[in-house]
Amino acid sequence: MKKIGVLFGQERTFPEAFVEAVNAQKPKGIIAEKLEMERVVQGEASGYAVIIDRISQDVPFYRAYLKNAALSGTAVLNNPFWWSADDKFFNNAIATRVGVPVPETVLLPSYQKPDGTTDESFTNLGAMDWNSFHKIVGYPAYMKPFAGGGGHDVYKLKNEADFLAKHPQTGQLVMLFQESISFTDYYRCYCIDRKDVRIMEYDPTKPYLQNYVQGKMSKGKQLLATIKDYVLRLNHALGYDINTAEFAVRDGIPYAIDFGNPAPDADLHSVGQENFEWFISKVKAMALKRARAYKEGKMNLTWGKFVTDSVDGNTVNIASIRKKMNRKHSSKNTSKKSE
Predict the structure, then answer these.
(1) Sign of the dihedral through C-alpha 287, 293, 297, 303
(2) Which domains does the chain have, with CATH numbers?
(3) Which pLDDT score is estimated for 314?
(4) Is the confidence at residue 132, as pLDDT, over 80?
(5) How far apart are alpha carbons 125 and 114 in whole angstroms?
(6) pLDDT tens-digit readout, 160-190
(7) Assuming Cys at both sites, which of 22, 77, 164, 322 could form a disulfide with 241, CB separation 3.0 to 4.6 Å?
């Protein structure tokens, strides 16, 4: 019997509904359950064909467990090795290479030296060109941790004086200094299995549980098609099995604001019934597909085009991703016009 396990923390609605949905389908030779872990021994198989990871970003012990499980062939969704390696600054850099608009962004060294370092630890760090940073990004702007942080330690900056007052508050955090996009519309998009996309109207200014705008979207088809295209470009490059991407629309152009959320909000009370049911359905289909394809001892992780191109060609062929996605998008538009 192949097992699909859900690894989670405080959330309840998604894990319970997912397990129930899989088992209600009665797939031959497959069962879903809340993951049970009693010991972690190096090189020892986990006993799961598929694990859906919803919590290891906050629990280093779980992250180590998942890497060990992947070694024995478990398909961990999302890939714990890539998830451990990427960060928001690097993801932004990839976006610029695959043709997805992102806010102007600069990486700032931590205001305070990391513990255990001295001035000599920064022999290679020259005088930062702060004047150019302010010109590149402009104001208003944001400072936020380069590696994420679930919305914590985010600072909105009105001007250069505000920057100088708030930067010392960031301590040892390495921060992004990022352009603020004054948007007319905002969207949050699920992406499952790097092919299924659900675009949801979203209001980031409202409190939690009130962010998702329920009902039919009234925006133009071309804008939504562009957003879907951008979501797929990003997730093909990054290789995430489960992710959300957020877009702020300014002057008709969708800018990717945050698109590295491999354990996205999937709480029924937050996302609403329709979005919740869609999410359960698509994650279930992907997990069953991966469970059926599972072969013990074989590496069953998903890697994005950034990594596979690096390995196969010994160079990072990001241009090929952009060319392929542009060609795909162009053919779709041509097909629609001929209908």
Answers:
(1) negative
(2) 2-80 (3.40.50.20), 104-179 (3.30.1490.20), 181-259+304-339 (3.30.470)
(3) 45
(4) yes
(5) 14
(6) 999 999 999 999 999 999 999 999 999 999 9
(7) 77
